[in-house]
Structure prediction request, 380 residues.
Amino acid sequence: MLSILNLAEILLGSVADKSLNTFSSELPQSDAIPTSLLMVLLTVNELRVGQFFKTFALTSFFSYVLGVNHVRIYNFQLLRLLSCSRKMTAIVACIVSIVRRRLSLSCNRRYIQDVFPKDIQPFVKHRTLSYEDFENKDLLIVGDVHGCYDEAMALMNKVREKHGENFVTIFVGDMVNKGPKNEAMLDYIMTTKNTHCIRGNHEQAVLRIALQKRKNLAMDERWAKSWATNLTEKQFAFLANLPYSISIPALNVIVVHAGLNPGAPLYSQNDSDMVSMRCLKWVGDDFHGQVLKPTSKQNDGYMWATCWRGPQHIYFGHDAIKKLQTHRHCTGLDTGCLYGGKLTAVYLNVPRDLSGAIDHSALSREFISVDANKAYVPVD
Ligand SMILES: [Mn+2]
Prediction:
């Protein structure tokens, strides 16, 4: 009996140790192990019911007085060495978890303030285009433009020549920044009818620069002369309200800039993942053991798009290195126009029957692309 419990203890300790390693890069997803469960593991070893209740009461008291809802203990073995009695173990556990909790909260807060301050968050994170939004129209989804305005106009003309004017356009994000004609592109997406845009990591970057300028905060040298420091109120408000995703239930399609975590529903996706993820890799989680978590690095684990099993088809950009990606349930449209590649769009032909309902059996799609005029920046 004792050895099994010891084993459980060691296993729990090792899972927790892994979570310590990933702590700095991941926001805590859950507060994991509740006090009572930990205390059971801590005391049941001794198999003394009286002692168990005493220790439980002591820890609960500390937790309550100090305002900690959940107590985490990261390494039982270490705590055992540090303290000579069960009471001491409970006290040390409380102190460790309180310190960790405080650190984690302040780290979280700093992270959120630095990366996604509320001034640049949209009112609606996930938009839905209803049937009425594109009634009797087709759908065009365009890859990462990065201010390559001339190529974008060439692409739109090519689409119009082939299919006429009867379509709704969605840009997958990174419409601006890094490229040659950012202002012109921004003006185009703000003023063109039937055009929707997703937020990409570069819209996010532009907003951050603009916000730093507005608040007279210290700015990175690289960005101090950026075009983004001259955004007007209207441009700022437009970019700040770009959603992270657009869903089109009638076509079973979601458009997002970088990707979605297949393990979470849309409303609980992490903001930074949606604009920057490329891969999924296994990492230790406090409570669930090994889970797949998004990472923005190239070739770190699995390509997220190969892990997405539907049912929706996801259109995304952000990954210029991999060029056009056509997976069963995902399509990657970033073909590196900025780097001298192509600007690619997909045209979804949406036929209607006589009653006006979408005829799903006759849906078809076509990739349309134009070559970049030149390589504007080297691949980084
Ligand atoms: Mn991007």
